[in-house]
Amino acid sequence: MKIAVSGGGTGGHIYPALALIREIQKLDKEAEFLYIGTQNGLESKLVPRENIPFKSIYITGFKRKLSFDNIKTIFRFLKGVKDSKKYLKEFKPDVVIGTGGYVCGPVVYAAAKLGIPTIIHEQNSVPGLTNKFLSRYVNKIAICFDEAKQFFPANKTVFTGNPRASEVLGKDGIKGRLSAGLSTTKPAVLIFGGSRGARPINEAVVKGFTEFSGKPYQVLYVTGDAHFEDVKKEAELVGNPDNVVIKPFIHNMPEILAGMDLVVSRAGATTLAELTSLGIPSILIPSPYVTNNHQEKNARSLSDHGAAELLLEKDLTSNTLIGHIDRIMLNKQTNEEMKLQSKKMGVPDSASRLYKVIEQLIKENQK
Ligand SMILES: CC(=O)N[C@H]1[C@@H](OP(=O)(O)OP(=O)(O)OC[C@H]2O[C@@H](n3ccc(=O)[nH]c3=O)[C@H](O)[C@@H]2O)O[C@H](CO)[C@@H](O)[C@@H]1O
């Protein structure tokens, strides 16, 4: 099987693609892959780390409001289609899968025009512009929230869940904790702001930093690569409590998550798929800066079921943040109840569901 994958910009689009590739590698030892991304997106760092062949095109996203940049983007799109066609003609994939982010636009469109079977994977409850555009051209649309159905043609749409939900299972949490320099006995909280970090979350954490000192739990605090140096400096100024470890980025998130009792994060869809698959309670601070406020919708789907607590960014201060953390970490019953509700919402077999859609599509195309 030869599979070309495209998805990028942020981790939420890249990790599902990598999880799918790893699932296929397990089932089909001969499978060959090509990943097409951009040079500026996080994918140009994450994909080569996994020894997956990587090619790039140059493309930018469309602005929602009228802008001269959109005209430039149209030209970049056309060039991106041309370059993608070249890569695809060389590689000759059996199927092309887009996992979101604007880079998928030209790649998946080019594949559809070449007559190659195509699939898009939509992680969110509300699709972005690129997947809405591509939905007209692709053969199949894999979704992760029932709410997403209404935006896509019913005959192509299938619920699979997010393959990352499968990948995070069965990992060793003790190993994860040790890799981050955490104690293996004390309860642990992970705080992070999505794949690129979030300034408002960083500000709230740093302001309340010293208050973590003496708590009966430890904190692994991930700032995001771009914010690390500033946060580290501030932490040194106010005094870094013994029970708080600060990191710029985590590359072994599945192991780390396996060792956590609570997660505080943005409400990116891939993160939520991981949390519910593992049954981890969370405090979700949705980013208000995303298309159609989709992170709040993602977050509410968990908080409505008691799997998470919602903390809106407008209410975020170091006091509200630590108050929420204490409520869950100092109350065993609340923590256990949330774990149960979170686990109930997980779709642990998502990777094999998506693989079946791919296999089926390839078979249909061979008829
Ligand atoms: C600002 C923005 O547009 N965010 C979108 C982006 O979020 P973002 O890229 O932040 O995506 P998610 O929160 O969904 O996923 C982040 C992924 O990165 C991993 N991770 C994160 C930090 C780290 O240090 N190490 C690490 O491995 C997480 O475990 C997860 O697998 O894609 C998501 C999925 O389409 C969307 O729902 C989000 O709205």
From TrEMBL:
GO molecular function: UDP-N-acetyl-D-glucosamine:N-acetylmuramoyl-L-alanyl-D-glutamyl-meso-2,6-diaminopimelyl-D-alanyl-D-alanine-diphosphoundecaprenol 4-beta-N-acetylglucosaminlytransferase activity; undecaprenyldiphospho-muramoylpentapeptide beta-N-acetylglucosaminyltransferase activity
Subcellular location: Cell membrane
Keyword flag Membrane: yes
Role of this protein: Cell wall formation. Catalyzes the transfer of a GlcNAc subunit on undecaprenyl-pyrophosphoryl-MurNAc-pentapeptide (lipid intermediate I) to form undecaprenyl-pyrophosphoryl-MurNAc-(pentapeptide)GlcNAc (lipid intermediate II).
Membrane topology: Peripheral membrane protein
An example Gene Ontology CC term for this record: plasma membrane
The protein's name: UDP-N-acetylglucosamine--N-acetylmuramyl-(pentapeptide) pyrophosphoryl-undecaprenol N-acetylglucosamine transferase
EC number: 2.4.1.227
Residue span, Glycosyl transferase family 28 C-terminal domain: 189-353
One GO BP annotation of this record: peptidoglycan biosynthetic process
Organism: Neobacillus mesonae
Pathway connected to this protein: Cell wall biogenesis; peptidoglycan biosynthesis
